[in-house]
Amino acid sequence: SQLEPSGGSLRAKFYLNMLGTGGGPSVLCPRMSRVNHSCGANASHLSLQDGMRATVLMAERNIVKGEEITISYKNHDDPSCPYPPNQLRDILKGKWGIDCPQDCLCRDTRRAAKIREAAQLDREVLRLGQLGDVKGGVRAAERLLKLESELEMSMITRGRALYDAFQIAVMSKATMSKAVDFARQHHEIKSAFGGPDWEQTRLAYSYWQTPSRHRNYLTAKR
């Protein structure tokens, strides 16, 4: 009853406060709904599937005592996001009444250029992988990961990039050592969110320890 909008119906409260689950149905987490938005969020959240029925709030960096914990309602940094920053600001304003200040990260033009480059690399990684250009795909993936690190993108975004890098590198014996390292880092992120018993953590661990379990293992023809 304390959720916004005050005096609104359950449907209205659900619409305003719901969390996406990465392809599954949206969920309502009253405690998570108390966390405010920031385009430079110091935390991220992930709804665990596979029967875990939990939503995890994870710090993205060291949070000092007294600092407000924030998440991004609409992540302008995500290379896979189909909306430009101005449209995301319109969504934030229209749904939550949030006005991004003039010095907000989402208005930084240099940062925006790097995000566009990251989005292009994100598409290029998969394109090169589909063409069987393993070395080119790995180079693009490494550049993408470097950019994501510079931009301090979320662990969720980095985890996805690491998995894409792994599933391309594992295609060739020449890049297998890199595949193993990508898989190791990917497992670390999955474990941080879901713990050792989460199904996705166990799957990531199996790829790290036994790369041959992946369907792309040594499938490259050149």
From TrEMBL:
Among InterPro entries, the record links this protein to: SET_dom (IPR001214), SET_dom_sf (IPR046341), SET_domain_protein (IPR053185)
Q: Which SUPFAM superfamilies match?
A: SET domain (SSF82199)
Annotated protein name in UniProt: SET domain-containing protein
Q: Which residues form the SET domain?
A: 32-74
PANTHER family from the xrefs?
SET DOMAIN-CONTAINING PROTEIN 5
Q: Which organism is it from?
A: Hemiselmis tepida
Read off the lineage from the record. Eukaryota, Cryptophyceae, Cryptomonadales, Hemiselmidaceae, Hemiselmis
Cite the Pfam families for this sequence. SET
